[in-house]
Specification:
Helix content of chain C: 40-55%
Order of helices and strands of chain C: HHH
Distance between the termini of chain A: 87 Å
Oligomer: heterotrimer
Helix content of chain A: over 70%
Largest sheet of chain A: 2 strands, antiparallel
Structural class of chain C: mainly alpha
Order of helices and strands of chain A: HHEEHHHHHHHHHHHHHHHHHHHHHHHH
Number of helices of chain C: 3
Structural class of chain A: mainly alpha
CATH architecture of one domain in chain C: Orthogonal Bundle
Largest sheet of chain C: none
Chains: A mainly alpha (651), B mainly alpha (252), C mainly alpha (148)
Chain lengths: 651, 252, 148
């Protein structure tokens, strides 16, 4: 069955191609969801079966399909690598995308671009699963760009809306900036591996994970600085894709895309590619403590920053977007926690744990927000509706489950994963080198948890409790979502509720990921500290109460109390977008305008002048045609003389 | 191309390159033409005198450079008469005088033909050229000529260019003449006219017949082209008074 | 080369040159043709010279051919002159210059800058719209805003 793993990327790809064929044929485009869903179902089934077959996850299988490049020193085979990390992530990806696809067959019904949507979603799943499965770093980079492309196409799905088009460009360009650093890291690593490994005898591909992990210890001895640089570059690449400060500016604007896109790409799968990269490169990061330190700091800052901004947003989807940013910050914080002695394995496990639970509850939250949006006639501004719990009962329950998981109340999933991260930090407070840093991060993590609780419950209470009202676009009576939209949400709810407990108590993740080759296994899994459990529960409850108060009180528009300056500052996202625009974009545009002027005035003038030369010369020559016989006779004689001269000179 | 020195002239050890003569002759003619193009009816006296001096010098050089004999003196005579007639042809402003000087050229050239053992051709040329072609030209000239000199006769189209072109072409021709390496000359084996007749009717029969056809076609074509389609047209002299300027600038 | 041949060749060259100069400098139609005849005479002289140098009669024969062709040409040329004279009543060749190119008129320069203020970019038919049944938007402004 292991060789059938090729079905996991290929089935969605075939689905995407069939959808594209439907578009080009122009027929039966309303059936486009069938190839996509079938493809993703096949992928999910194969992924799950492979997971259960690989009990314990103590295997590494690489099946090679073909060689992409084999030129001189460059050897890049296309092989899929199955180990615990990739299988885990793959299951998350395929399962969530299946649920989102089923959901969007109801959500996107009637949209003119129905078939295009499913083609793009399937293509995205193909790219993402290949990213996770492929065994070569350069191919990971290739599919990294592939998911970036699909994300661009999906954010700008309604391309004739100028805001959507601009948001898509922004996402792509910010990612591109980070990917430049990533590419620099890949190239440096390629160079480094070439320094210590001898390619000629074994003919290994230099950027295969096996080769990298073999070379890392050697490099750590001979060129430790190089590993530090590579780690930092890869971190920057991961930050771009996973929307951490300062590259987070694209994620809130990416909410211009359809809600299933936000759920799939910008909550569950694409933004986790950065985490996956760091997890995959963890043997390398173990030798690059600078990178881990940076990751931790950026993660902590982002977690708090995202929480603060989310608190002041009035658009439900924006709240969830900033919440995603904040939770991803937690995962980076987990990596930072791996700075201690041989704790990187545990850090990777904690980050992946949070990744899985976050995928479940964030996808659920987004999809229920999509339900609300559908019912409210595409209005998602929380100030315009309220008290929907009796109008949309099932959506209310589902949202509540997701919100409780996000806040981190036991026994739902979010509690266990946040526990593992904060517990890892807490247990290392007395680390000799990084103890103070860990303490700082712990405090920031707790602050972020508090903020998470506050904004989540504020959003929940504002939407579903309080006075019942809805905007005019919702019509007479908002209707609950259809079955095809609710069914996947119930399935996701099961994951939201139980995945945390299951993974925690059966220690599946640790057994699966820790034995990953080349990763040192730390000491035994430490036990929970009850102090931390009580602390986090109390923070969560406090946050919920504060949020309830915030959500149920009258809004500023009704009380006519002007918001204080900090609120304005935070609501405008701390003006970071404007700062980036003025610092980075405007100078480039200015230089571009100068060059455009140069092109228009100088180069175009030159081109036009050259183009006018034949006309000028022709106008001169045509005057020789004077119609006078004597001139023509003179021409003839000149010709004769020239001929004679040539003949004489040649002889 | 050996430059001429006085010693060489007195010792009769001259191999005159033809270009010596050519430069002299043509230089004189050119001066005449250029002066005449500035609107004056007569060329200035300096150019005329200079031209004559150059001509005489050339004549003398030519006479000295070749051995004396009947044939040579006849050759020199006919050649120089032809040159003088050429100059006259190019220089005369009145068309009839130019045509008549053309006749003189033809006559002199026929003399040269006789010296070159081509008596038949000399006779043919005189009869056909001087006797028929020139007559046609004179007829048309009379037909179209006005009583006074017209300005298009007085003016020269391209004075300097024609001089330079003529010089260039002549230089080229003379260069090629001087570089010629002909084989040994052979005398004529049989009677001159008989030889020509044999050729014409055996080897070149085709060409003769085609030439005959060509003449026929030319005759028919000339008749057709010169047909008058409007025989009742008023002559121009009956319609308007002539407003052409004369050579002295007065209008009629 | 014998002096006879050389002198004859020279005379031929002179005749040709004078014919050329006359051809270039004359304005009278008939005299132009006459200069052409002079050139032909020069060429015939050359033929005669070479023929007599080698003692064969081909030179004379070709001179006869030249003579023939010159006569034909003179006949037709003068017929043409007569026809032309009937049109314009003058023998001036400068007056016949209708087949000529005049100087081009000044054209207005092409606009240097793009004066199109609003760029209507071409719009691809949005996905999912059948152009045969739905009105295809012409500009971006015509596309209706989407729902959800």
């Amino acid at each position: 069955m292991l060789n059938a793993i090729w079905l996991v990327p290929l089935a969605p790809l075939c689905g995407s191609l069939i959808c594209m064929a439907l578009i080009m044929a122009g027929r039966r485009k309303d059936l486009a969801h069938l190839p996509a869903i079938i493809g993703m179902a096949i992928a999910a089934v194969v992924a799950i079966v492979t997971y259960f077959e690989s009990k314990g996850g103590e295997f590494v299988v690489a099946t090679q399909a073909y060689t992409w490049l084999n030129v001189g020193a460059i050897n890049i085979p296309v092989s899929l690598r199955l180990d615990g990390l990739s299988l885990t992530h793959l299951n998350v990806v395929t399962f969530i995308s299946l649920m989102v696809a089923i959901y969007s067959s109801g959500y996107m019904k009637g949209d003119p671009g129905y078939a295009r949507f499913f083609a793009l979603i399937s293509a995205f799943v193909f790219c993402m699963s290949m990213l996770v499965l492929v065994g070569n770093l350069l191919l990971l980079y290739a599919f990294w760009e592939g998911v970036g492309l699909c994300s661009y196409l999906l954010i700008g799905f309604w391309y004739h809306k100028p805001s959507a088009a601009k948001a898509a460009m922004k996402a792509f360009l910010v990612n591109r900036l980070a990917d430049c650093a990533f590419l620099a890291g890949v190239i440096t690593l390629w160079y480094g591996v070439g320094l210590v490994l001898d390619d000629s005898t074994t003919a290994i591909a230099r950027l295969d994970y096996d080769a990298i992990f073999t070379a890392v210890p050697l490099l750590a001895q001979q060129h430790p600085d190089l590993l530090g640089w590579v780690g930092c570059f890869m971190l920057i690449g991961a930050i771009g894709k996973s929307a951490q400060f300062p590259f987070h500016v694209w994620l809130p604007d990416a909410m211009e895309g359809p809600t299933p896109v936000s759920a799939l790409i910008h909550a569950a799968t694409m933004v986790t590619a950065g985490i996956y990269l760091l997890a995959r490169m963890s043997p390398l990061l173990a030798e690059a403590p600078t990178a881990l330190l940076l990751a931790g700091w950026l993660g902590a800052i982002t977690a708090v920053l995202g929480g603060v901004i989310a608190l002041f947003q009035s658009d439900l989807k924006r709240v969830l977007a900033y919440s995603t940013i904040s939770q991803l910050g937690y995962m980076f914080l987990a990596f930072g926690a791996g700075l201690g002695e041989a704790t990187l394995g545990l850090a990777v496990v904690a980050a992946m744990f949070h990744l899985i639970t976050h995928a479940f509850f964030k996808a659920q939250l987004f999809l229920t927000a999509g339900n609300v949006m559908h019912a409210m006639g595409d209005v998602i501004d929380m100030r315009q509706f309220g008290g929907l719990k009796n109008v949309l009962p099932r959506t209310h329950i589902l949202f509540m489950l997701g919100a409780v998981a996000l806040v981190g109340l036991p026994p739902l999933a979010g509690f266990w994963s946040k526990e593992s991260i904060l517990g890892l930090l807490l247990s290392q407070l007395n680390d000799p080198v990084y103890g103070a840093v860990f303490g700082c991060w712990f405090a920031l993590g707790l602050a972020a948890a508090l903020l998470t609780a506050i904004y989540t419950s504020k959003a929940y209470f504002k939407t579903f409790h309080g006075k019942e009202h809805w905007p005019a676009e919702a019509g007479e009576h908002p209707h609950e979502a259809s079955t095809v939209m609710l069914a996947p949400l119930w399935v996701l709810a099961v994951g939201t509720v139980f995945s945390g407990i299951v993974i925690f108590y059966f220690d599946t993740l640790a057994h699966f990921i820790l034995p990953m080759p080349f990763l040192e296994v730390a000491h035994e899994h430490h036990h929970e500290s009850w102090f931390l459990v009580l602390l986090s529960i109390s923070i969560a409850v406090a946050g919920v109460l504060i949020g309830r108060w915030l959500g149920l009180r009258k809004s500023h528009a009704e009380t006519e109390k002007s918001p204080n300056s900090f609120a304005i500052f935070a609501e405008n996202r701390f003006y970071l977008d404007e700062l980036f625009y003025n610092l980075l974009v405007a100078p480039v545009l200015y230089i571009g305008s100068i060059i455009a002027a140069l092109d228009m005035f100088a180069i175009d003038s030159l081109a036009r002048y050259i183009a006018s030369l034949p006309e000028t010369i022709g106008n001169q020559i045509r005057l020789w045609q004077s119609g006078r016989v004597s001139h023509y006779a003179a021409g003839m004689v000149l010709g004769i003389i020239a001929l004679l001269t040539i003949v004489y000179l040649r002889s | 191309m050996i430059p001429l020195t006085l010693a060489q002239i007195t010792e009769r050890d001259i191999t005159i390159a033809p270009w010596h003569i050519a430069v002299l002759v043509l230089g004189m003619v050119g001066l005449l033409l250029i002066r005449a193009s500035f609107g004056q009816a007569k060329p200035s006296r300096t150019t005329t005198v200079g031209g004559f001096v150059a001509l005489t010098a050339a004549f003398i050089i030519n006479v000295i450079s070749i051995p004396w004999g009947i044939e040579q003196s006849l050759l020199v005579t006919f050649g120089w008469l032809a040159v003088v007639a050429c100059i006259a042809f190019v220089s005369f402003r009145t068309p009839v005088y130019a045509a008549l000087s053309f006749t003189a050229i033809v006559l002199d050239v026929c003399g040269i033909y006789i010296l070159n053992t081509s008596p038949f051709l000399a006779a043919s040329t005189m009869i056909v050229y001087a006797g028929a072609t020139i007559i046609i030209f004179l007829f048309v000239l009379m037909f179209a000529q006005r009583s006074q000199l017209q300005n298009y006769d007085l003016q020269i189209s391209l004075p300097r260019f024609s001089l330079l072109a003529g010089l260039a072409v002549f230089a080229g021709l003379l260069y090629s003449i001087s570089e010629l390496n002909l084989a040994e000359p052979k005398p004529l084996t049989e009677q001159k006219v008989e030889a020509l007749g044999k050729l014409m009717f055996t080897e070149y029969l085709w060409s003769v017949e085609i030439a005959g056809v060509l003449l026929l076609i030319a005759a028919i074509a000339a008749i057709l082209i010169a047909q008058d389609n409007e025989p009742d047209r008023l002559l121009e002299s009956e319609v308007t008074k002539s407003t052409h300027t004369h050579w002295d600038g007065a209008k009629s | 080369m014998t002096p006879l041949t050389q002198q004859t060749l020279m005379v031929g060259a002179l005749l040709f040159t004078f014919g050329l100069m006359g051809f270039l400098s004359r304005r009278n139609l008939i005299l132009i043709f006459l200069s052409v005849e002079l050139m032909l005479a020069g060429v015939a002289t050359n033929f005669i010279a070479f023929g007599s140098h080698y003692g064969i009669a081909s030179g004379q024969f070709f001179a006869i051919l030249i003579l023939t062709v010159a006569s034909c040409e003179a006949a037709i040329a003068l017929a043409l002159v007569v026809a032309l004279y009937r049109r314009k009543s003058t023998l001036d060749v400068e007056l016949w210059s209708e087949l000529r190119e005049t100087a081009p008129e000044k054209t207005k320069p092409v606009a240097k800058t793009d004066t199109n203020k609003e760029h209507d970019y071409p719009v691809l038919t949005p996905a999912g719209i059948d152009p045969l049944t739905t009105k295809v938007p012409v500009t971006l402004r015509d596309v209706p805003a989407p729902k959800a």
